[in-house]
Amino acid sequence: MRLGEKEEVTCEAATTALRKAVRLNRAIQASDGHWAAENAGPMFFTPPLIIILHISGAINTILTAEHKMELLRYIYLHQNDDGGWGFYIGGHSIMFGSVLSYIALRLLGEGLDDGEDGAMTKARKWILDNGDQTKAWRKGVQQVKRYGLSGEAMTSAKNEASASRSNSIHVQNAAKMWRYCRETYMPMSYLYGRKYHGPITDLVKSLRQEIHTKPYEEIDWNKARHDCCKSLQMMCWWAENPDGDEFKHHLARVPDYLWLAEDGMKMQSFGSQIWDTTLATQAIIASNMPDEYGDSLRKAHFYIKESQIKENPTGDFTSMYRHFTKGGWTFSDRDHGWAVSDCTAESLKCLLILSQMPLEIVGEKANIERLYDAVNVLLYLQVQHTYHI
């Protein structure tokens, strides 16, 4: 409902707008009770997926022609006018985003001169005019190295070995890394230790010439690695055993990460299902419009209850620098496995509020033991001697 600048905001008008908002949220709720949303934006998510699918030979199994068409559309759409790509959508061109995006386009079948208005030619020109792929950020160098596009000496052994240093003597030990960095640097270290790279195909040989300013064989990789100062767990499992169940399990979950929107298809990070669902649930309840609830709260209640982590990580998880997780909620879904304090708090809040509402509207209450488990997680995550979590 729209009001003109000079129109009075009446109770009736506000109520009508609120009612429409509740109805819209009900309409876009998924059948299992969550609210879906895109969780993407960085330009370094999609290319590594394409690289590992290409190396493993699974690209045509996982990606149909329609998948590839939408992936191409997404990458081209976010190419900057100067020919490069940014760290994220709309960001200024940098070597990291540009090299990975260019390689992804070539692996998806684009030729040297393809793309509207010479897009591939412009991309290649930007890369070469700005120093070539050896100037890419460390994570980008790791990706192109595993595809066979840079020398092994490109990475400093000191940096990659730091992940295995003793907890007591090195700040970059896995126990002290931010979890998202750990998810990147541990696979990078493994692949470095294996000295792994994919098959050297004709396309790899061509790319070696396309993204470097001098012949590949003449590059001093020991020197070049300092220009950038300098990941994929999926690639680790492929390097370990191409026919192993672990890699096959990764392949099975690839579709979960692909998101199609108006700008094409991209690989996104893990979702934001719990975060969005708990906030949407609280907003609908706050509307105080029982006649508009329908079955939305019942479905949301079911999803929140089912998304709680029911068990701790397997094995001796403390020795692997993992916290206990039983009773918590993640940012996305239960399979994600990382308990998050605010998502746990919002989920617990929803369950407490819903437990006070009629069963015919919200369904069965959560098991009381599950609520205790959630409180236990929150108390554990609270920083000692402060009120912060």
From TrEMBL:
Gene Ontology process terms (BP): triterpenoid biosynthetic process
Residue ranges occupied by any Squalene cyclase N-terminal domain in the UniProt entry: 20-134
Keyword Transmembrane in record: yes
InterPro entries: SQ_cyclase_N, Squalene_cyclase, Terpenoid_cyclase/PrenylTrfase
GO CC annotation, single: lipid droplet
Keyword Aminoacyl-tRNA synthetase carried by entry: no
GO molecular function: beta-amyrin synthase activity
Protein name: Squalene cyclase N-terminal domain-containing protein
